[in-house]
Amino acid sequence: MHIMEGFLPVFWCVVWWLVALPCLALGVYQLKKVLSADREALPLLGVTGGFVFILSSLKLPSVTGSCSHPTGTGLSAIAFGPWITAVLGAIVLLFQALFLAHGGLSTMGANTVSMGIVGPLVGWGIYRALRDTPVNLYVTVFLAAAFADLFTYFTTSLELALAYPAQVGGVGSSFVVFMGIFAITQVPLAILESIILVLVFKYIVQLRPEILVRLKVFPEGKIMAAGRDA
Amino acid sequence: MLRRYRFEILAVIAILAFCTLFLRVGNAEFAGSDTVGSSQIAKITGIPEEQFHPLVWQWVPPSGEVESTLFALQAAIGGIFVGWFFGYWKGLKEQERERT
Description:
The structure holds two protein chains of two kinds.
Chain A: H1 10-37, H2 41-55, E1 60-61, E2 66-68, H3 74-80, H4 82-99, H5 108-131, H6 137-163, H7 170-207, H8 209-214, H9 220-229
Antiparallel strand pairs in A: 1-2
Helix pairs in contact in A: 1-4, 1-5, 2-3, 3-4, 3-5, 3-6, 4-5, 5-6, 6-7
Chain B: H1 6-25, E1 31-32, H2 33-45, H3 64-99
């Protein structure tokens, strides 16, 4: 999902950095607020952020004959919302740009928008839509995580299509081509990732349901019921 | 029992199913989708890939081995956080149990 250093024209580098920066600023602000309000939020941040680190380092082969990696941003988006998740995503992307030559500093704005902002925002939107409905809590986590992953790659495809419209068919036909490379590869990975994240969420519900209740991640009754059930 | 561990069972099935997908693919290259994406950019623009230069200077790991070390390091850092805090929660729970 990384757009490699040098593969995005200067104009689009600037555009995506300008989109990413205010979101990151809001994320840092929210992060400070959450952590000063409740010290017990830190372990949850560590666990959800840790999974962004782990899962985005795993380059898995896929059915299309190429490799890609999950994003792991779903849990953090559910627990802390998309803006704090953007900060976590940016930390991972910075590590990868500096030490792994995956993505780069000029394309980091675009990569932050896809992995840190749009993906988590979509996942969070699905979670918010389902949170107070009778839909099972684990199903909600699964869907949010899967869509956070898929929409990351959807966004990368869109970013590349906008920067490189095809001579015939323009942005639309470029988008289809890039979706073929990024998004189709991603479908099995997104499903696998989401099942793993559901499992992790189950362990959080078992070990520390209090923090999920306090941060109002899900209604208390739902969390307690899930804890008894698991 | 089966219900209690349903997600663990589901995860194992999903991982196995994921692995079996590749029994059929045969000798595909499994290059990174980032690389495939970059070649596609070269194809659309008609500019060879070698002519795309970094806009900002970038350190590149000297070999695939070094790169895989650093990737492992990234996963390890994440693992430390996850393990540390799950351990912390586990400890808290034990403590609460002893108190009551």
